[in-house]
Amino acid sequence: QSVLTQPPSVSGAPGQRVTISCTGSSSNIGAGYDVHWYQQLPGTAPKLLIYANNNRPSGVPDRFSGSKSGTSASLAITGLQADDEADYYCQSYDKSLSNSGVFGGGTKLTVL
Amino acid sequence: QVQLQESGPGLVKPSETLSLICAVSGGSINSYYWSWIRQPPGKGLEWIGYIYYSGSTTYNPSLKSRVTISLDTSKNQFSLRLTSVTAADTAVYYCARRSYGSGSYDSWGQGTLVTVSS
Fold it and tell me: What is the pLDDT of residues B39-59, one digit of tens each?
């Protein structure tokens, strides 16, 4: 059971918009810790997609955006493309776990 | 552009110690936080811990009694030791760099699969 809760799967057709939620608690997201998002293509290492809730590293398309409110965060992907099909993970820290890192269980995005 | 590369045995026997090294190139290890994260086959990511360049460490409480992360600044690398391993420790192990400001992991190694089996 992951500390951060994500839906196991989401799907959408090319060109559509999808969102992936990440639900935490008052000891992690709600405590003010930033949320970060990673994209993991099959057989590869995770890649940072969004940092500090809503910031994109250089090279990440603006089709990807993040938001945070209360004890939850969301990743939105617009203009879905076939190569967006991947696993997506949220990550934060938790003060009840001695400020250790915590990940969501991951969400598999399928592009129909 | 910093690069990270994991190395170590791909097979470890139950009850023995898993040891991995992460070699850092393209940047000095004398800054940032340096981390280990693992992923059991077909499952999600699990945070193991990190070491600050000063030597201070933070570990996942569920692994703390078995984990040691250390730095070797002379070789620009850091390492992971996990004792008393069981089949549940079978995973792809990633080393990663944690950024100062945000706490995100902005650079990752390619990962190395470690299987625990007799």
Answer: 999 999 999 999 998 999 999
